[in-house]
Specification:
This is Metal-dependent hydrolase. This protein has 198 residues and is mostly helical. The chain is 67% helix and 0% strand.
Length: 198
């Protein structure tokens, strides 16, 4: 899945789960934590694989249940102890939804689910056949662009745009949480600076 698809799946999961429990839409900071969580597995594994060559594939430590489950539990316990449950839930839902997305993503190509993607180091991933370094991301993006040009419009909408567009609509319906955070942080900083001067 692409970064925006991981973000969309995470937000959709988090917002709908809050609605199902009768809670308010996601708040600013938990939404940012969710967004960070949806990207973290790739932020761990891709540089360690593509840039540093530590892993032979882009799905290793960050995508492993052996790492993700304890991390999620640790964040959950810390969130409960510090009374920041929504913040912790946002991050954990984001992180774990990334893994779920990678496991079920092959279905859109007619392939079976790929549970082995989250079983590192117990199940080794097929290593890359050539080292492209950090340029691998550009190669993948080029391949995506070529494939989008060659598919029919219905498949394009259903396979690539429906999830993202539905999530953007839900995000707007929720009040676009996360957008106001920079302004809130700036206001807090300004208030503290004014207090320090007086």
């Amino acid at each position: 899945m692409w970064p925006w698809e991981h973000a969309a799946l995470g937000y959709l999961t988090y917002s709908l789960s809050r609605r199902a429990r009768g809670q308010a839409p996601p708040a600013e900071l938990p939404t940012v934590a969710l967004l960070f969580g949806t990207q973290l597995p790739d932020l761990i594994d891709k540089p360690l694989s593509w840039g540093l060559g530590i892993f032979t594939t882009g799905s290793a430590l960050g995508h492993s249940l052996l790492f993700a489950v304890p991390l999620g539990l640790l964040i959950g316990v810390a969130a409960v102890r510090t009374d920041r449950r929504a913040l912790g839930a946002g991050f954990v839902v984001g992180y774990w939804s990334h893994l779920v997305g990678d496991v079920v993503n092959p279905l859109r190509y007619g392939d079976p689910i790929a549970v082995d993607r989250v079983l590192w180091p117990f199940v080794a991933q097929e290593p890359y056949d050539q080292d492209l370094g950090l340029g691998r991301g550009l190669v993948y993006f080029g391949e995506l662009f070529e494939s989008l040009l060659s598919i029919d419009s219905v498949t394009l909408v259903v396979a690539y745009l429906l999830l993202t567009l539905a999530t953007v609509a839900l995000w707007f319906a929720d009040g676009a949480p996360g957008v106001g955070l920079p302004g809130q942080l700036g206001e807090r900083l300004r208030t503290r600076l004014e207090r320090g001067r007086s």
